[in-house]
Write a structure and sequence with these properties.
This protein has 185 residues and is mainly α. The chain is built from 8 helices and no strands. It has one domain: Arp2/3 complex 21 kDa subunit ARPC3, CATH 1.10.1760. The protein has helices at 4-27, 35-52, 55-72, 76-86, 89-96, 102-128, 132-135, 146-184. Helix 1 (4-27) runs parallel beside helix 3, helix 2 packs antiparallel against helix 3 and helix 2 packs parallel to helix 4 (76-86). The longest helix has 39 residues, at 146-184.
């Protein structure tokens, strides 16, 4: 018979630790050029709750981590992209993987990403006062096509992220979760 009190205590502690790690990682986004990468890594940590406990606890962890990120992360792009894209995407990916037709699955993922990316773009501009020009910093050489180059790079990075999640999840279930469960018992 399982000890219900221990299980609940473990779940709360695990989710609290994940939220604290996400807060620390997201605070490090003040380092230039790390906003997107750190938001993506933080999303994987949210997903680890789903892998260790379940999706309900993972979603609650995402909500708590989003609130902490909103107030503690000084970098507006990092917090916006964590909250609107990377924080929940690994959880959503699990559901999207159930779509049998590959092209439809890819189209759904891409539609979700692009809708969230456009929302995040406008949120950063209007809520945090970041100029549209700051997003395109370094792409001036592309002239009027800079927005399209930025968007294409974002979609390519998203596909790489989605592809990488498959192997991160495999590694978690294969090596990390068994060791963690062994330590817990």
């Amino acid at each position: 018979m399982k000890n219900r009190g221990f299980e609940t205590s473990f779940n709360i502690a695990y989710c609290g630790i994940i939220c604290a790690l996400i807060s620390i990682i997201m605070f490090a986004a003040v380092i230039p050029s790390t906003a997107y990468a750190l938001a993506a890594v933080s999303g994987v940590l949210v997903w680890s709750v789903s892998g260790q406990i379940n999706r309900k606890w993972a979603f609650m962890t995402y909500v708590a981590a989003s609130a902490l990120t909103l107030f503690l992360t000084p970098e507006p792009e990092a917090k916006t992209f964590f909250i609107l894209i990377f924080g929940y995407y690994p959880l959503l990916r699990e559901s999207a993987q159930k779509i049998k037709i590959r092209i439809l699955r890819a189209a759904v993922k891409l539609a979700v990403f692009n809708a969230a990316a456009v929302t995040a773009y406008f949120a950063v501009i209007f809520l945090f006062g970041v100029s549209a020009k700051d997003f395109l910093d370094g792409l001036e050489g592309f002239g009027k096509y800079a927005v399209y180059v930025f968007w294409a790079m974002g979609n390519a990075a998203f596909f790489f992220y989605d592809f990488s999640l498959k192997y991160v999840m495999y590694a978690y279930f294969r090596w990390i979760k068994p060791k963690l469960n062994k330590k817990i018992r």
